Fold this sequence. Notes:
Layout: E1 6-8, E2 13-16, E3 27-30, H1 33-41, H2 48-65, H3 69-80, H4 87-101, H5 108-135, E4 144-148, H6 163-172, E5 176-182, H7 189-200, E6 205-208, H8 213-218, E7 224-227, E8 231-233, E9 238-241, H9 244-253, E10 258-261, E11 267-268, H10 285-288, E12 289-290, E13 293-294, E14 307-310, E15 317-320, E16 323-325, H11 329-338
Parallel strand pairs: 4-5, 4-7, 5-6, 7-10, 8-11, 10-15
Antiparallel strand pairs: 1-2, 2-3, 8-9, 9-14, 12-13, 15-16
Bound molecules: 5-S-methyl-1-O-phosphono-5-thio-D-ribulose.
5-S-methyl-1-O-phosphono-5-thio-D-ribulose is lined by residues 46-49, 86, 150, 152, 156-157, 162, 189, 227-230, 240-241, 306.
Amino acid sequence: MAIEALKWDGEVLWLIDQRRLPLEETWLKLGSYEEIGTAIGDLVVRGAPAIGVSAAFAMVLAARSDASTEGLQRAAGQLRQVRPTAVNLAWAIDRVSQRILQLPQEERVAAAEVEAEAIRNEDRAACAAMARHGADLFEPGSRVQILTHCNAGALATAGIGTAVGVVRELHARGCLERLWAGETRPILQGARLTAWEAMQDGLPVTLMADTASGKLFSTDCLDAVVVGADRIAADGGVANKVGTYNLAVLADRHNVPMYVAAPTSTVDLNLSRGSSIPIEQRSADEVTEIGGQRIAPLGVEVFNPAFDITPAELISAIITENGVARPPFEESLRSLCRKA
Length: 340
Ligand code: MRU
């Protein structure tokens, strides 16, 4: 059965609790926008596209409880702040708001639901298109080894994933020799989620500690790094899970292509430079604990940025649902976003 992060049943949003994977598959039922906001902040659901789709359904529930303009603006304002780097959050909230605020109050709930379902369906289709465009970057008939980071798979989207979608398509074409998954400290999305997803689908996957990446590159086995993104600025600078920049530097050093797969909803043309993307700082206990077990001295100071920025000059190509952008990204990204 296909892996899903979320389900809308017409009344409530169901989210698989990603904090408990892979040990437990628990679904949570969320019946208010406040509950969805908390779930996004607590990483029950994570990954930029899945956050955006969840927020779109949160706006449906917000409209159901108070469809006044003030009520909707209050809900939108609260939801937007929950995770500041993933632009899909603000993008989805704005898209639903723009669609419904122009309507009479009594039509807003139904219209919000239509828009949220469209956002979910478009994301599903975007994943499938990215998978094809991404897989086309590799020689037909070749056998490739791909390194990915964090989880940019089905659990992070409404479809088959962005980076992991490309890997799934390579596997379907008989071209995947191996997927390498970095564990992704501090909260181990690579170990807990990507390794689990890959094994569920029978993809050949090897998990490694993030610190093993230098050793892996030096064996010369990699054909590409493929990662997702939380926000892409107009210059092609990419915010993604902390540790992505490390891999991009290694990829440059070892002449391995660095590909980013993300829907155009992750591209923020309002930000000219990647270095201006706001970076979410998360709590110290993500670093001082593993699985609730303290591993660091009490009271130690902690640096815990959730994301880092990979500058455009380290990125070989950006794979979107509308095609592949190559440097210089200012022009190529803008033209792919226009096609949307
Ligand atoms: O903190 P997370 O788990 O939400 O971070 C997720 C990532 O960094 C993903 O790579 C990104 O959102 C793209 S998901 C298709």
